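Throughout this review, each integer encodes one residue's backbone shape. One record appears below.

===
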Amino acid sequence: MQIGVVQTSPVFGDKVANRKEIEELIAGARADLWVMPELALTGYEFIDREEARVLAEEIPEGETCQWLAALCKERNCHSVIGLAERSNLHIFNSAVLMGPRGYVGHYRKIHLFDREKEIFDPGNLPFAVFAVGAARVGLMICFDWRFPEAARTLALRGAQIIAHPSNLVMPYCQQAMITRALENAVFIATANRVGTERRAGRAMTFTGNSQIVASKGTVLADTPVSEPAIAVAEISPSAADNKHVTMWNDLLEDRREEFYK
């Protein structure tokens, strides 16, 4: 299975230009699963909740989902993208998984970072795992990385691959995802963005260095820290079903939950 990460430099609020950037980046490449950044088509630094509401869309009826569904059908692939979701009076920081036949599933960010708490409602969907061909893909978003329970929950629910759309501004995540992959024996695709957004009275600079990590912690492919780029790696998702560290130790079966309370 070919898995790819797309690293972009979005223009705030310009969904047309941001879609075009993604299309151009992946034009000459092939992947069975593409992972794109958090809030990939809107940008990140919303001035207030009302601005986010205007740019947010319904899932799966909105234009981003419709565009991504057409892209997946044309390229016979699956894709994960982060977007602002509008659901009745709620606004969520969400990620949606689309495939050649359209909508597969989505997730709403549970661990909101910094001013996101003023913009978005906390996610209210459980961590979920979806079928992508013979593979099992779980979704988490950006700051979820700081909570080991996120990746562990996905692993316990059978994920072989974790798709991780991100807009990273803090250090350490890329290194931490190596640990998340090791402690859960899963593949992890972190798709970050680059550039600086100067809005809402502050500047946010994003760290790039998107990466694909193997279930044994090896970085299979990554991108630069400051330029739009893609990275693709070939993986065997079933390798993530082997949770053995030694013949006596299994990462999940050896858990002793009675002592974790």
Remarks:
- Residues 18 and 65 are 14 Å apart (CA to CA).
- The longest strand covers residues 78-87.
- The chain has six helices and 16 strands.
- The mean pLDDT is 97.
